[in-house]
Amino acid sequence: MYVAVKGGERAIDNAHAWLAEERRGDLNVAELSVAQIREQLSLAVNRVMAEGSLYDPDLAALAIKQARGDMIEAIFLIRAYRTTLPRFGASAPVETADMACDRRISATFKDAPGGQVLGPTFDYTHRLLDFALVAEGEASAVERGEARAEPTPHITEFLNKEGLIQTEVDSEDVPGDLTREPLELPANRPLRLQALTRGDEGFVLSMAYSTQRGYARNHAFVGELRIGKVPVEMEIPELGFAIEVGEIELTECETVNQFQGSKTEPPQFTRGYGLVFGQSERKAISMALVDRALRWEELGEDNLGAPAQDEEFVLYHSDNIQATGFLEHIKLPHYVDFQSELELIRKLRREAMENTMPVQEAAE
């Protein structure tokens, strides 16, 4: 007979203590500080902020430390903390054309108005381990470039002057908020973009890659990829105007996609869009490709049955916190459920044996 394993509160306390010991590691090695994680593991911090839906580098670094580097666990911690915060209001839409760009590139125009800014990136490095990083001591200072301070117009604006790209129409409707309301389908584009920007990077990347391999009609160029800081403004009712409350770092990607036209739209270029907290180029590009694939219906295209065109499949399976919760719950006690299935299997085996015995006897 199967019985429940008994441990209770004492066993759980011991598990917590063991976890803390494992997190600290060898006491002869200096402890990693939150500041070190924030400054030296910034790309990991950016991912936690984006998928946790909370822009706070210090808290994201703390979550990474507490989670022992488990990114999804860190994202879970940030989302849980976010639910405890009061909401004072909503900020105005940020103007990414006013971004102070640390990096700004275009794959469509070599001589892009405003120039190309290569910025900090792995794109031009050799994928070789740098064993100099193992050496202790401070790294030598290197000269870095300056962010482009003046406003940088978007590449797609120049295409739009010739009417070659679909015009995006501003809506007066206030978009829904996935952090406060559950996702409902069909979802409009603002909600889809919210789901993608906080979706699991690996999943969104996989969906984007599938579109490039032919599982959607999605031949894209990176019209522009930009990274930099933008001011955040908030309307203050008592003042009657908006004031700047801070600034955040963003990665924005606009793809330019070929479109041969449909029954409702003329031949033109169309857009995919991605916007993510911090420097998250892979995520922003992936998001833009999937965004474009999901627009098949509004553009009057045929649904090719591609996974990236299936709104329900993409949006419901991109959330790594929901996926983790559902996946990991199966390791929790299911003793009663298993007992019922165990008895069912035993019963079916008895019936099968009883049915085969007369056949064997007759054969003998």
Indicate the multimeric state.
single chain
Count of folded domains = 2
What is the residue-averaged pLDDT? 87
**How much helicity do the residues have?**
25-40%
Q: How far from one another are the termini?
A: 37 Å
Question: Could you give the order of strands across the largest sheet?
Answer: 1-2-3-4
* Largest beta-sheet characterization: 4 strands, antiparallel
- Tell me the overall shape: globular
The tally of beta strands, per DSSP, is: 4
Uncertain spans: 1-5
Percentage of residues in strands: 5-15%
Structural class by secondary-structure content: alpha+beta
Radius of gyration: 26 Å
Total DSSP helices: 12
Describe this structure in words.
It is a single chain. The protein has 364 residues and is α+β, with helices and mostly antiparallel strands. The chain folds into 2 domains: 9-82, no CATH class; 96-122 and 141-167 and 179-324, no CATH class. Helix content is 39%, strand content 14%. It is built from 12 helices and 4 strands. It has a 4-stranded antiparallel sheet. β3 and β4 (268-277) form a beta hairpin. α3 packs across α5 (71-82). The longest helix is centred in the C-terminal third of the chain and has 29 residues, at 335-363. The radius of gyration is 26 Å and the shape is globular.
